[in-house]
């Protein structure tokens, strides 16, 4: 079973002639079954043989990104690739039909992209310059028109200078300033400023001139000026006119205003002094604007023609040209990245690979196919080899659409060790179930179940649409199973949005107390619930328990005990999986001195507690509830008062029960030193023997190494020295203190963790209680009042309350509580279950796959 344990891996040597390296790797990357071993993980990619090819691909991808950005700016629709395998076959066919070497196709692509990119850059630069020129002309034209509207015809006439000095223009209108024109000479400053800077500009001018200036502004039409540096976004600008007293251009106010304009990057313009020059300037600007618009239109058409080339879907392709080029470059970059994992020696590339069992036949077939397709080219060789070093094989599980999501939950915590039992197999079953225990509700679970059914049934339609549900498709089966178990457990708790359902008829009837007992009881307690003889509610909890005063006490007790039972069973199963792992790896030390005492310890403590809970459920305590013992009290007395007769007892006279509990306690305590002491002592003895044996072997090999260093050539000497270094440094002698401290930590973690982990499973009760209470609060506050009132007022209250109830239920219970229950189920698997057997120190099988890397990049990134 490939999902229970990792597939069996084989270690092979791959030898490829350099002249056919591209062709061989191109065939192997289509197999999706090879894991290349990096010969030197510490060597940077930039120092490897094919780093230059990877850099070329990166540069070309950057250029394509710029072209794609231009296409989006011109609203060109890109057809993305939906079937990368079809595109891979298309690339293969194109390369096969060429008469040149296969790897030179990248050179053709590079030349084509460089040429088109350069042409597009030139046209885009021309467009930007023309836009800048058009903006300047529009600004100048607006200055003339708006300035004339602000200043009037009188400013075309030269003023007679009489005096120059301080004139307070604060609060004066333009007509008042014109009256002063005969006695004071005025200067003006005309320009264009961004509207967002307008208020700050006014304030600074007022402060600098101390009110000795008049300023007014008028907005330019918002659709005329564009920002060429921000995707041609529209810019709102304003024409401003500043009038201030002074003669000449070198006075203090003029210098200050010029500095302010420079700080705001204001465009300043000159205003004609007579009407004839004004009209002539206006006509000249209008003529230039028409010419600029025509040039812009021509340039835009040329740019769109270039972009249409990239947008077009060519024959024998299933996507736009730009997408096809991008995926080809990603494929080429990936190919050369894999080649960089191989060592280059002369005209040969060689390296190590991992293959799943049986995949070597596919690789041999692919190598033979290279020689068939490309006649005259030498092919590669595959040789089985013993693994080098101490690193174990990679872990590989075959997953499908259902198991992928659950395996990702496990992998997020850690990759399983090679051949270790995969927790993902059991997570498929236990994760949705534990979620359902916490989210248990018939109504809410059914809503989640419907969502899962909808995602599974309309999977293809949603995938091809732009719906937000598209992002949930990858976990649709998980949502379906979570909804099913929430719906199922809702029936177990008999809870439909805090309302019980009397589906099978209650086993209790409401009876009136006898007359003599009514005198003693309160008036409100004249009735009691009487159970029918030999009646058992067929499925779930009898609905009458939701209508009695002690409902919360009963449900709390029931859910708490159920959570403990589920938790102990779940963790016991984890301990059993540890024993199965130890048997598979033939690790008898772990099996005898860890698994067996841990299982006995856990069974004698928390397994015993589960037994007491279930046994108490099987005893009929009707009419004798005051003598029913508390399970918590029994467990506490088992530790604090061992051997003392149990009172009240669960069975018998309490002596046999006390003896059993004492025996359980002694067995559990005896297991602790068994877990702690034997393993480090045995490991230390084994390490000493192994260290002594290695020391003898090392001394015997020293003379052989010396003789080989004298007689072998330099290349052989280097390889021998590497082997010698590996043999001498591969074994690490671990001290007894380190082993013992590690085992002490393991023992304390297990013993104390058994208590804390069992308590942690109480979250199954806590979250179920919180969910039920929230649902009840929403029902009571939003719907119960309208239902109780009745009539027209009740209908209005019900209508308003239902809208609030729906929003609160969706936002709090269907969104926040789903996420909360999901995270708590995640924690129970990662911490409480997996730590019993899961090492999580493996590494994943990274298969060399064109389809995977291209599929990951075929989906457009959302902005």
UniProtKB/TrEMBL annotation:
It is found in: Membrane. Keywords: Hydrogen ion transport, Ion transport, Membrane, Transmembrane, Transmembrane helix, Transport. Pfam families: V_ATPase_I (PF01496). GO terms for biological process: vacuolar acidification. It comes from the Eukaryota. One of its GO terms (molecular function) is ATPase binding. It is a multi-pass membrane protein. The chain crosses the membrane at residues 433-456, 468-488, 562-584, 596-618, 663-682, 799-819. One of its GO terms (cellular component) is proton-transporting V-type ATPase, V0 domain. Belongs to the V-ATPase 116 kDa subunit family. Essential component of the vacuolar proton pump (V-ATPase), a multimeric enzyme that catalyzes the translocation of protons across the membranes. Required for assembly and activity of the V-ATPase. This is V-type proton ATPase subunit a.
């Amino acid at each position: 079973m490939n999902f229970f344990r990792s597939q069996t891996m084989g270690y092979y040597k791959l030898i490829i002639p350099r002249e056919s390296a591209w062709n061989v790797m191109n065939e192997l990357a289509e197999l999706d079954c090879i894991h290349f071993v990096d010969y030197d993980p510490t060597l940077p990619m930039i120092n490897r043989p094919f780093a230059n090819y990877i850099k070329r691909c990166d540069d070309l991808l950057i250029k394509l990104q710029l072209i794609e950005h231009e296409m989006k700016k011109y609203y060109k629709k890109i057809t993305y690739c939906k079937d990368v395998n079809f595109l891979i076959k298309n690339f293969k066919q194109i390369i096969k039909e060429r008469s040149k070497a296969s790897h030179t196709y990248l050179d053709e692509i590079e030349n084509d992209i460089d040429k088109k990119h350069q042409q597009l850059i030139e046209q885009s630069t021309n467009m930007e310059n023309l836009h800048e020129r058009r903006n300047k002309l529009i600004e100048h034209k607006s200055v003339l028109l708006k300035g004339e509207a602000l200043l009037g015809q009188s400013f075309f006439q030269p003023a007679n200078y009489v005096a120059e000095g301080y004139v307070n223009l604060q609060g004066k209108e333009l007509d008042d300033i014109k009256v002063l024109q005969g006695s004071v000479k005025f200067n003006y400053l005309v320009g264009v400023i961004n509207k967002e800077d307008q208020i700050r500009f006014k304030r600074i001018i007022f402060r600098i001139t101390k009110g000795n200036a008049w300023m007014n502004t008028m907005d330019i039409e918002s659709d005329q000026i564009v920002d060429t540096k921000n995707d041609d976004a529209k810019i709102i600008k304003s024409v401003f006119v500043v009038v201030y007293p002074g003669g000449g251009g070198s006075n203090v106010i003029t210098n200050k205003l010029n500095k302010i304009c420079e700080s705001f990057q204001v465009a300043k313009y000159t205003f004609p002094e007579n009407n004839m020059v004004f009209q002539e300037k206006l006509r000249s600007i209008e003529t230039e604007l028409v010419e600029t618009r025509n040039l812009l239109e021509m340039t835009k058409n040329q740019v769109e023609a270039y972009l249409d080339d990239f947008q077009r879907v060519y024959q024998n392709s299933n996507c736009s040209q730009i997408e096809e080029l991008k995926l080809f470059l990603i494929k080429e970059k990936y190919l050369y990245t894999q080649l960089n994992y191989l060592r280059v020696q002369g005209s040969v590339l060689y390296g190590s690979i991992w293959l799943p069992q049986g995949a070597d036949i596919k690789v041999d077939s692919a190598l033979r196919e290279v020689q068939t397709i490309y006649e005259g080219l030498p092919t590669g060789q595959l040789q089985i080899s013993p693994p080098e070093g101490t690193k174990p094989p990679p872990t590989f599980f075959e997953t499908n659409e259902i198991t992928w999501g659950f395996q990702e939950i496990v992998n997020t915590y850690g990759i399983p060790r090679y051949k270790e039992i995969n927790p993902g197999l059991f997570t498929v079953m236990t994760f949705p179930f534990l979620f359902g225990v916490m989210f248990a509700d018939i109504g809410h679970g059914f809503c989640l179940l419907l969502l899962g059914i909808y995602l599974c049934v309309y999977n293809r339609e949603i995938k091809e649409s732009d719906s937000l549900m598209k992002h949930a498709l990858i976990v649709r089966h998980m949502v379906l199973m979570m909804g099913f178990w929430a719906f199922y457990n809702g029936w177990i708790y008999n809870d439909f949005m805090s309302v019980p359902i009397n589906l099978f008829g209650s086993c209790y009837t409401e009876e009136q107390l006898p007359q003599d007992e009514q005198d003693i009881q309160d008036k409100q307690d004249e009735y009691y619930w009487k159970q029918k003889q030999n009646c058992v509610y067929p499925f779930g909890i009898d609905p009458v328990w939701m209508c009695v005063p002690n409902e919360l006490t009963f449900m709390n007790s029931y859910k708490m005990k159920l959570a403990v039972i589920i938790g102990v069973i779940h963790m016991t199963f984890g301990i059993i999986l540890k024993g199965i792992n130890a048997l598979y790896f033939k690790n008898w030390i772990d099996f005898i001195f860890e698994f067996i005492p841990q299982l006995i310890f856990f069974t004698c403590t928390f397994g015993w507690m589960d037994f007491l809970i279930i046994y108490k459920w099987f005893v009929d305590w009707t009419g004798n509830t005051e003598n029913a013992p508390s399970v918590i009290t029994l467990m506490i007395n088992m530790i604090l008062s061992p051997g003392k007769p149990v009172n009240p007892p669960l069975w018998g006279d309490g002596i046999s029960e006390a003896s059993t509990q004492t025996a359980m306690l002694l067995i559990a305590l005896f297991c602790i030193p068994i877990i702690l002491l034997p393993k480090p002592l045995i490991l230390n003895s084994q390490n000493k023997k192994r260290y002594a044996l290695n020391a003898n072997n090392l001394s015997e090999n020293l003379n052989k190494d010396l003789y080989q260093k004298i007689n072998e050539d330099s290349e052989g000497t280097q390889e021998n020295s590497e082997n010698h270094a590996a043999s001498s440094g591969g074994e690490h002698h671990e001290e007894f203190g380190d082993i013992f401290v590690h085992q002490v930590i393991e023992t304390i973690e297990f013993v104390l963790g058994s208590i804390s982990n069992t308590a942690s499973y109480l979250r199954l009760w806590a979250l179920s209680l919180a969910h039920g209470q929230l649902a009840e609060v929403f029902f009571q506050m939003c719907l119960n009042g309208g239902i109780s009132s009745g009539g027209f007022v009740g209908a209005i209250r019900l209508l308003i309350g239902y809208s609030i109830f729906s929003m609160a239920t969706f936002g709090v219970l269907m969104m926040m509580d789903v996420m909360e229950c999901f995270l708590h189920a995640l924690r129970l698997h990662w911490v409480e279950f997996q730590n019993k057997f899961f090492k999580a120190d493996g590494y994943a099988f990274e298969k060399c796959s064109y389809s995977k890397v291209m599929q990951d990049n075929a989906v457009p990134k959302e902005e």
